[in-house]
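[Primary structure, fold]
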Amino acid sequence: MRIRTVLPVALLAVSGLLAGAGTTFAAGTDEEFPEGGGYPAYQCFKTDRAEYCSDTNVENDAAGAAWIGTCPIDVQKGLTDKPYLRDLRPEGALSCSGEDTPESSGYPAFQCFKTADRVEYCSDKKVKNHDAGAAWIATCPSNVLKGLTGKPYLRDPRPKGASSC
């Protein structure tokens, strides 16, 4: 009987955090953010580990919510506060993988990752599975791997301008 009471309350609390996100980062709300005030702006949020911001400006609430939706599920679950806008993108902010082009649905695909300085690295050839992708990443120089942020991801086609290890 208790779970029938607790579960709906917990679901409402979580959905309120995410649903409330659509109104809290809108220009003209009662809340004012010293970092930014309206669109276009960088969509940002904080997790228990880091701050994440879009690589490009978003134009409205829907675009901001869509960008958050591109973030890996484990990043979204770590959301600790309401999303907000920033006029300038913080240098240390992480970005969610795959926001510029759609991610591949599976293997074979190009194995990619981003570094803290927002350089994207991708394999020269498609990898056939997770182990092959991990083996490719292991071939990268240690100074590149030190800057790795977020989880590696798949792309197909290979992004133009992506660096190789």
